[in-house]
Design a protein that fits this description.
Elements: H1 10-35, H2 41-67, H3 77-97, H4 102-133, H5 136-171, H6 193-197, E1 208-210, E2 221-222, E3 241-244, E4 249-252, H7 263-268, E5 274-276, E6 282-284, H8 295-309, E7 317-318
Helix pairs in contact: 1-2, 1-3, 1-4, 2-5, 3-4, 4-5
Length: 324
């Protein structure tokens, strides 16, 4: 690499590369140990693929380090800590494996993979940032490496997070989606990530709920900020199709800021609940919570609110209905 005189960031870049390389070395050990705890055939197949990709990532980083004139065997305090962290994860997997509960051992293995991949994913995000801000050989070398690896790292982290989540749900006795949503259909997700893709899981288990329709001026609005009822904002994906309008027409919905924080707004408008099954077929169910004639529907709305409060990932739209 260029001297520090020409590149004031050289020391930090060198440290990041050493840590990234050590993370990939440790990742191989973590995957190898985790595979010994796997019961699910789909998960075993997926992690076997990730293990092979991790070995390829080691070679990619080794090529980067060599191209920049660095010693791949050089040690640093940060690299030693990364190695210790990886060894600790392997030990945790071994402890879980020897505890006599194969189901929980598989979950522990998934969580350890998530921890390892979190550091790995961050390393590659930082290398991508350096590539974007650098020039010359450093930019060329890092850009090529990032292009070859980054989309795989997204998949490693976010889909394994999905596995850990669904394995827990299955263990708790609730309907789980195994394998989790995403999989081969995943694209480069970056900051949206497969974590957002978790919002699609409920469509495979329960009807997803939407507040569909248009505002007074015919503008489709996606709810932003707290719900009038005080619910927290639910996650949503940018490319999801929504059942909108009287005939359940499918339209893409762009974000439109909607301020629903003021109490008077909630008092002047009320939502219309609509359900949409996994196949996209809309099932209208109008609910006016203040109307005694629709007590059964109000109870179903209360059930939907209960699901939201308990963490159901659903997409919410708001149909603005003026109250005289």
């Amino acid at each position: 690499m260029a001297s520090s005189k020409h590149n004031p960031h050289e020391q930090g870049i060198r440290e990041l590369l050493y840590q990234a390389y050590e993370t990939e070395l440790g990742g191989e050990k973590v995957y190898s140990a985790a595979l010994g705890c796997v019961k699910n055939a789909d998960l075993k197949k997926e992690w076997t693929e990730y293990l092979e990709q991790t070995r390829q990532h080691q070679q990619v980083l080794l090529n980067v380090i060599s191209a920049l004139g660095l010693d791949p065997d050089a040690q640093s305090p940060g690299r030693d800590i990364v190695a210790h962290h990886g060894a600790s994860l392997v030990k945790a997997i071994a402890l879980a494996s020897n505890a006599g509960n194969p189901t929980l051992a598989q979950i522990v293995a998934a969580e350890c993979v998530v921890l390892a991949e979190t550091k790995d994913h961050q390393n590659w995000e930082l290398l991508a940032m350096i590539a974007g801000k650098s020039e010359g050989d450093l930019k060329a070398v890092l850009s090529e490496a990032v292009a070859a690896v980054e989309h795989q790292e997204d998949h490693h982290l976010y889909h394994t997070m999905g596995w850990a989540r669904e394995l827990w749900i299955d263990t708790l006795g609730y309907p789980a989606v195994l394998p989790p949503p995403g999989g081969k259909k995943a694209r480069r997700v970056r900051h949206w990530g497969f974590a957002r893709g978790a919002g699609t899981r409920d469509a495979a288990v329960i009807p997803s709920l939407t507040f569909g329709g248009t505002g007074p001026r015919g503008v489709k609005r996606r709810l932003r900020g707290p719900l009038p009822s005080g619910l927290s904002r639910m996650p949503h994906t940018p490319n999801e199709l929504f059942a909108i309008g009287n005939h359940g027409e499918k339209n893409g919905c762009r974000d439109h800021p909607t301020d629903v924080r003021q109490r008077h707004w909630a008092e002047r408008h009320r939502p219309v609940l609509r359900t949409r099954m996994h196949d996209g077929t809309p099932h209208p169910l109008r609910v006016r919570a203040d109307d005694q004639r629709h007590r059964a529907n109000r109870e179903q709305l209360e059930k939907a609110v209960h699901m939201l409060l308990n963490g159901a990932d659903v997409t919410l739209l708001l149909r603005v209905v003026n109250i005289p």
